[in-house]
Every structure is written in C-alpha cells, then in structure tokens.
C-alpha cells in the first residue's frame, strides 16, 4: 500500500498571505528567502510587471486564482527513519496562503492565454464537468 500525505492546518489559525512567484529559471534553494531584496518589481504602463533577477530582465503578469480557490504554502515535516519495509506517511503543515501567482517570463511578459493562465482555467472547468 502506498503511503499517504497528511495535511495539518489548525482551524481558525491566522496564516500569512504571501506572494507566489513562478520564475522562468531554476533556483537551487528550498526554503524561505528574502525575495523582496532580490526581486524589485516595477509596474509597467499596461498593467504588466517588470523586474530583474540575477541580472536577467523579466516581464510578469499577476494571475488571480479562480473564484473559490486558495493556494497553500506547505512545509514538509521531518520524520525519523522508520521501518524500511513499510512506507511512512508524509505530513505537511500549512504555513501561508496566496490568492494570486505572478507568472514571469524571461525578457518578456508571458502571453495572456498561455502557460499558467491556461492551466488556472482547468480547475473551474473540471468542477463544472
């Protein structure tokens, strides 16, 4: 039998609303980072966003999550090594939430109907079907 995942979220607990960024690059870091110190966002004349990250220019667009959806920032809890013959359950804790994702493109703003914008439409479509 496959191991499950347990989600821990204290009812009524205040969780910070955090910005979510989808970068057009790989960042070899897993954990909190002072993003505001490295990603200085400037609004453009058409509502787009502009920034540079590690010297590369990026164009972005903030995409709200569909109505009724909320993004969760999760942290996996460490478990001591257990019985090797039995899969262990994974436990994750909710540490923050987000209601929009900034989709960044290298040197240009991502197209309005492609990539992440298109993917965000599938939740409501699947729910309707």
UniProtKB/TrEMBL annotation:
<dbReference type="GO" id="GO:0032299">
    <property type="term" value="C:ribonuclease H2 complex"/>
</dbReference>
<dbReference type="InterPro" id="IPR052863">
    <property type="entry name" value="RNase_H2_subunit_C"/>
</dbReference>
<dbReference type="GO" id="GO:0006401">
    <property type="term" value="P:RNA catabolic process"/>
</dbReference>
<protein>
    <submittedName>
        <fullName>RNH2C Ribonuclease</fullName>
    </submittedName>
</protein>
<dbReference type="Pfam" id="PF08615">
    <property type="entry name" value="RNase_H2_suC"/>
</dbReference>
<dbReference type="InterPro" id="IPR013924">
    <property type="entry name" value="RNase_H2_suC"/>
</dbReference>
